[in-house]
Amino acid sequence: LEEMRSQIEILKSKLNNQKIINEQQLRYSMSKKMSKIDKTMLRTVIGGCLAFIYCTWVFTWMRLSLPFIFATAILLSACLAITIYKHYSFRHINLSGGNLLEVVEQLTKIKRHYRDWWKTALPILLAWYGWWMYELLTIYNFNSYALGIYLGSAVGIIVGLVIGYKINSKIVNETNEILN
Fold first, then answer.
1. How confident is the model at residue 29, as a pLDDT?
2. What is the value of pTM for the model shown?
C-alpha cells in the first residue's frame, strides 16, 4: 500500500511537470505568433503615417478644397489613432505570466475589431471616394488629364482594398491560430 502511494505521488509530480512544460510551450508559441501580428500592425501604422503626409501634400498641390483636405486628414488620423490604440492594447497582453483566459479574452476583442472593421470602413471609403470624384470633376471637368486621375484613383482604391483586406485577413488568421 505504501509503495502504491509513492508511485501515485511520483506519477502526480510527473503529470504536474508535463503540464508546466505544455503551458510554457503554449505561451512561447503564442508569443511568436503575436510578434508576427505586432510587426504587421507596426508596418500598417508606418504606412498610414506616410499616407497621411502624402495625401495632405498631394491634395494641397492639386488645389482641392480645404474641407476635403481636412476631412481626409481627419479620416486618416482617426484610422491611425484606432490602429495605434489597438496596437497599444495588443502589445500589453501579458503572455509570460498572465491568466490565459484573460489573454484569450483580449485576443478575441482584437480579432472582433479587425473582423468587423470592414463594416465601418467600406461605407466611409465609398463616401470619401464619391467626394473625391466630385472634387476632381469641379476642378478638372472631364478632360484627358482628369480621366487619367479618375482611372488611376480607381485602380489605387482597388489595390488599396486588396492590400487592406490581406493585412486584415492576416491579423484575423494569426489571431485565430493563437486562439486555437
1. 74
2. 0.72
C-alpha dist (Å) from residue 34 to 45, 46, 90: 16, 18, 9
User: What per-residue confidence (pLDDT) applies to 35?
Assistant: 80
Type of residue found at 114: Y
CA geometry: angle at 164 spanning 179 and 44, to 5°?
A: 80
With a cut of 70, which residues of the chain have pLDDT below it?
Answer: 15-23, 91-92, 94-98
List, in order, residues 6 or more apart from 34 with CB less than 8 Å away: 90, 93, 95, 174, 178
Cell of 50: 506616410
Q: Which of 87, 157, 167, 149 is nearest to 122 (CA)?
A: 157
Which residues lie closer than 8 Å to 81 by C-beta, 6 or more apart? Answer: none
The 3-state secondary structure of 107-139 reads HHHHHHHHHHHHHHHHHHHHHHHHHHHHHHHHH
Q: Give ∠ CA 174-176-180 in degrees, rounded to 5.
A: 120
